[in-house]
Amino acid sequence: MSETLTIALPKGRIFEEGIALLQQAGLPLHLPEKSRALQWRMGHVTLLELRNQDVPVYVDLGIADAGIVGKDVLAESGRAVYEPLDLGFSRCRLSLIREVGATGPIGRLASKYPNLSRRWLQERGLSAEVVKLSGNIELAALTGLADAVVDLVQTGSTLRANHLEEVEVLMHSSARLVVNRTALKLKRDQLRPLIGRLRELTGTTSAP
Ligand SMILES: Nc1ncnc2c1ncn2[C@@H]1O[C@H](COP(=O)(O)OP(=O)(O)OP(=O)(O)O)[C@@H](O)[C@H]1O
Ligand SMILES: O=P(O)(O)OC[C@H]1O[C@H](OP(=O)(O)OP(=O)(O)O)[C@H](O)[C@@H]1O
């Protein structure tokens, strides 16, 4: 009988694809029935359903042995968890966005990613107030709450529908496997083969 493995997955667009991939990699997972439950025991695996931002925290503190999270969220968290694989889905980019044609100085910038936004400003020697928002970030640029926003772009349809433009790409993102460093040693017999199978399935060698 294998030792329990605790896996953290974020609710939202990564959840279903994450379960499907881990299932293909041999974990006894399935999509849970709709309910208010927040964790499930499936065979030897305990599955935790978290907010995106909380996945690096649960993995870093060792409550979860491993998890899946976007590179954007991982970079914003600053948590030094082991990140062995780029899983290749949920691809998007984190970009500076402004109203089409806006050229004035950026006095205030809004984002769900305040740390990455501040780092970008600092690298360019710009000083702007950074306001943290929680969703529909593009509205901040449209309503004048901010002179620019830092948010995700995938197809660009949200930008086109709102007369906004992508001024600069801060980083590219995709879903990453993250692993607790102590669990990697203590549960090596389970985690190493899992990483190996996921590597074969996703065809990646390392996570840049
Ligand atoms: N339009 C998109 N296309 C592809 N990938 C995306 C897109 N938007 C976000 N992502 C990626 O998927 C991850 C999860 O996005 P999701 O939309 O589920 O989060 P959310 O509901 O906005 O998060 P939360 O409300 O928990 O902050 C993001 O961190 C990013 O890596
Ligand atoms: O370039 P696009 O293909 O339009 O994708 C970009 C949009 O996708 C995400 O929003 P999401 O749909 O997850 O809604 P949210 O703002 O509630 O997170 C992101 O925040 C952008 O608004």
Describe the protein in words.
The chain has 208 residues and is an alpha/beta fold. Helix content is 32%, strand content 30%. The chain has 8 helices and 11 strands. The strands form 2 sheets. Strands 2-3-1-4-11-5 form a 6-stranded mixed beta sheet. A 5-stranded mixed beta sheet has the order 8-7-9-6-10. 35% of the residues are buried. The mean pLDDT is 96. Bound molecules: adenosine-5'-triphosphate (ATP) and 1-O-pyrophosphono-5-O-phosphono-alpha-D-ribofuranose (PRP). Adenosine-5'-triphosphate is lined by residues 12-14, 51-52, 70, 72-73, 90, 92, 152, 154, 173. Its EC number is 2.4.2.17. Heteromultimer composed of HisG and HisZ subunits. It is found in: Cytoplasm. GO terms for molecular function: ATP binding; ATP phosphoribosyltransferase activity.
How is the secondary structure organized here?
Layout: E1 5-10, H1 13-24, E2 39-42, E3 45-50, H2 55-60, E4 66-70, H3 71-77, E5 82-86, E6 92-99, E7 108-111, H4 114-123, E8 129-132, H5 138-143, E9 148-153, H6 157-161, E10 164-173, E11 175-179, H7 181-186, H8 188-202
Parallel strand pairs: 1-3, 1-4, 7-8, 7-9
Antiparallel strand pairs: 2-3, 4-11, 5-11, 6-9, 6-10
Bound molecules: adenosine-5'-triphosphate (ATP) and 1-O-pyrophosphono-5-O-phosphono-alpha-D-ribofuranose (PRP).
